[in-house]
């Protein structure tokens, strides 16, 4: 019997377009004509629930550096903002 897991969209929300089958790692589109999706629907009708996706772990320092890099490329950024961005990236 297959096991399924929900997946995240790129924006961090749980996908309503795709489900993942654990056994082979297949990403199954939520297309009613798709044979694998039909199997998934039958599995749910039997009372099963997909596994919740693992939480996304964000490295806050790396996130700050990524934001700082966008400041450096922003033509409207002030000199102070650019200096602060450079300090963030270096440290």
Q: In terms of topology, how is this protein built?
A:
Blueprint: E1 4-8, E2 14-21, E3 27-29, H1 35-45, H2 60-72, H3 79-90
Antiparallel strand pairs: 1-2, 2-3
Helix pairs in contact: 2-3
Averaged pLDDT: 88
Which structural class is indicated by helix and strand composition?
A: alpha+beta
Shape: elongated
Adjacency order of strands in the biggest sheet: 1-2-3
Q: Helix tally? A: 3
Number of strands: 3
Q: Spell the H/E element sequence.
A: EEEHHH
Q: Ends: how far apart?
A: 50 Å
Proportion of residues in extended strands: 15-25%
- Helix percent reads 25-40%
Radius of gyration: 21 Å
Q: How many structural domains are formed by the residues?
A: 2
**Biggest sheet character:** 3 strands, antiparallel
Parts with pLDDT < 50 across at least 5 consecutive residues:
none
